[in-house]
Amino acid sequence: MDDIFALNRRLARSWWDMTEATFAASATIAARLPMIAAAASGFGSRRAQRETHEMVAEKIMAAAEGAQAGALQTAKATLKVMTGENDPTAMAHHMFDVADATMRPARRKACANARRLWSRSG
């Protein structure tokens, strides 16, 4: 029974992490949209263009880090399943491990950017 409660806590934590990342990404986009529009139109300053390029590179790096972490966690989960940790609750925990590892870099970057941009503007 404890396994089910632990699984429910993981589900709630995963939901909270995704919600936090969604709001952080929305706040970051809202703060950066004028700069992105100016850089895309060619009327932006060099600083805005540089910031836009850095922003895109940062997102690509976060996606690559997440893919790498997810692949590593998938290999670990596969090994655990092959060595006997294959009951349904353990399998669900393995899937949460993969999802958490994959999302962690992007969520970390999104939350840090939102804090930085909104503390500077507000």
Automatic annotation (TrEMBL):
UniProt protein name: Uncharacterized protein
Native species: Rhodoblastus acidophilus
